[in-house]
Amino acid sequence: MLQLVNVGQKSLVDYATIVSRGLMDEIRRLAEPLAGKRVAHVSATAFGGGVAEINYALVPLMKDAGLDVEWRIIAGGDEFFAVTKTIHNALQGDPKGLTKTQEEVFRRYQALNAEELEDDYDFVIVHDPQPVGMIDHFANSSARWIWRCHIDLSEPNPGVLAFLLPWLSRYDGAIFHMPEYVPRVGGLPAAYIWPPAIDPLTPKNMALSAEDAAYIVDQFGIDVERPLLTQVSRFDPWKDPLGVIDAYRGVKAERPEVQLALVGSMAHDDPEGWDYYNRTVKYAEGDPDVYILSNLNNIGSVEVNAFQVHSAAVIQKSIREGFGLTVTEALWKTRPVVASRVGGIVAQIQDGETGWLVNSPEECAKACLEILADPVAARQRALRGKEFVRRNFLMPRLLRDWLVLMNLLDGNDTAGAEVATVAAV
Q1: For the chain, which end, N or C, has fewer CB atoms within 10 Å of the first or last residue's CB respectively?
Q2: Cβ neighbour number for residue 39 with a 10 Å cutoff
Q3: What is the mean pLDDT of residues 262-269?
Q4: Could you tell me which residues come within 8 angstroms of residue 243 by beta carbon, excluding any fewer than 6 positions away?
């Protein structure tokens, strides 16, 4: 059997004071016809990245809603994850494709993992490209198979997309963050659209006082009396940590007291992570006010929370971004957020109203200087951002969307509870 992830327990009633009563009533109504349905989430890793974070909240909430849910992790060696990283980059627009050898490695691991997955579920939810081909080995499955894409496929490498398309065409549905991410090619299954969400009750997002946040970041050498800029992301070229350092240098030229923290996590399905981590350290050139930290420095959920809460500004200077939940996290904590005008970030920030959208390191630096010059006005934007998150990007809304889709695929009446779709090409 594929590795089973222990997700613990969560209760929907704990969210009743955070989200609307109407949403909670709708969840209960939609869950009734799905009681006891067996659901498998299948992904590449149980830690590092947004998929894992979402599943640690979503899976136990699905259980609390009455479904019988498991989350299982595929197996893979270094050769496999090197291939899937190439696929991941290609689907986001990298021109580098797959060799025949890499294609064979991918197929071999799909078969190996399929052998370890039982075919006794009502729904199988496959996250991202790493396990996408497992469906090929379940020709007679009675389950509804759903592919959840967490990345930006608006300009995919056509060769790599064509390689995956025969598998994708077999799914009963595919979910994307935004309509723009749905590739305009024939053969895709029905496409459903909804954004991801954060769990406001996890250690990463729970309320943390300014004093407690300062105490925590102080343990990592941060001078808590001086302003701090922070980006929380994997060490990945798409997250542009080098561009963040450029922006920081632009700020420091006018505000020499400023500090920068680049806070990330190293995931086992990201073999390029260490290379880019080392490249980022080298690019910082030994600047004592640049702190490059990861889970290997004992950075966990509470520490990420503390860095975000303590920061004068939170940055997300991605080049490409599927959604960028770190933006939502920071807004939820009422922090001024400066982020690139790319991908799903533009669905989270209304430029000039709830945050700052930028197109370059120079614009990023200018926005950070504006925040440092007028923190009261910056906080007003952040307060509006928190309310926007409350209405749109919290976990109960994500659970509701999944329940709607499962009811639709099961042929149940959803009566007024809909999810957005994109018409097939």
Answers
A1: N
A2: 23
A3: 76
A4: 317, 319, 361, 364
